[in-house]
Write a structure and sequence with these properties.
alpha/beta; Rossmann fold; six-stranded mixed beta sheet; five-stranded parallel beta sheet; 40% helix
Length: 408
Amino acid sequence: MFPRFLSSYVTEAMEVMPAVLITGARQVGKSTLAADLVPLEAHYSLDDLDLLASAREDPVGFVNALPSRVLIDEIQRAPELMLPIKASIDRDRRPGRFVLTGSANVLTLPRVSDSLAGRMSVHRLWPLSQGETSGEGAGPEDFVGVLFGSATPAAATPDDLVKRVLRGGYPDAVGQPTERRRALWYDAYVTTILQRDVRDLSRVTSVTEFPRLLALLAMRAGKLLNATDLARDLGSNNVTTSRYVDLLRAVYLVDTLPAWATNVGKRLIKAPKVYFPDTGLAAHVLGVTEERAAQDRPVLGPLLENFVTGEIARQLGWSSVRASLHHYRTASGQEVDLVLETPDGRVCAVEVKSSVGVKAADFRGLEALAADLGPRFHRGVVLYAGQRVLPFGERMLAVPIGALWQWR
């Protein structure tokens, strides 16, 4: 049983809001987390076909017959329930009445995002973070909080990065003893999501193009999303390809990192970057083994950047610092892998390198951004595969990648 650091924040939200929604991919542990918060006798799963038929046939009657506190799993399968839930909340606004889970992003479905506005707290549960995977009970990792702090952080011990990147964070995949068994699990997982959840969300009658699209997106992990190029490689048109990408995002197989918009007076690239919420899945789709990744740095590099992006995104769900996550690229070619900005405008920036050494040239993008932002720029970090924390000028550090899960 792995600890889930999001749990205390969901519990706190239940003490404030009438409804709490836990979203995330299938098999990341949403139901397990939610079941710890709601008595088992009040647990309704819409994967049960009888319950699903009842909810769709008479959504008002279904909601009115529910107990005072209830867990409804896979709410995206019956979005018809949202308006009756809203009406029930408007009659009784006691906190913690409804705990909902969804394996698809229900906030993208028609009318759902508006129906529970101001009544529902939304939390995304990702695949396991590295701190959760270790299960050592040391508490949530908070690389983001330390990054925005004032002290010079301590060093991090070296670790086997390749194993961590390719293992991923799905609990069932993490528990597999061999690469072969993990690959079998991922094969079955992807097939289930495409054959079931994608069909549920859309009018797509054939999913034969989706495995190819998933592979094309995995090849682009860490790169800008160019719909025209993607459609050409898929042999489709822009509209259909963009719709298919949105469906893969809706079921949390892929994600995008938005471009950072700022007023530094430069022409910025506004396209998002592609990344995978789970690098184990991305590596599986690409057919990358631990042996190949360890020997081929160009193969490891994009997966490592994707890995860092995912770990920081996970931590933002519980970090002591609230921040938004973006990438930065100018039309002239300056770029920074990750930009984190707090609500008060402070910025930290992160570059990711797969090398065991670091040099001054690795900081050029960070230094350019620091010069543009002035006092708003708090700290720039190059995460690398070495062992020491090294200063590289004012507000600049080289930091071992292990700091992601060792800094608290």
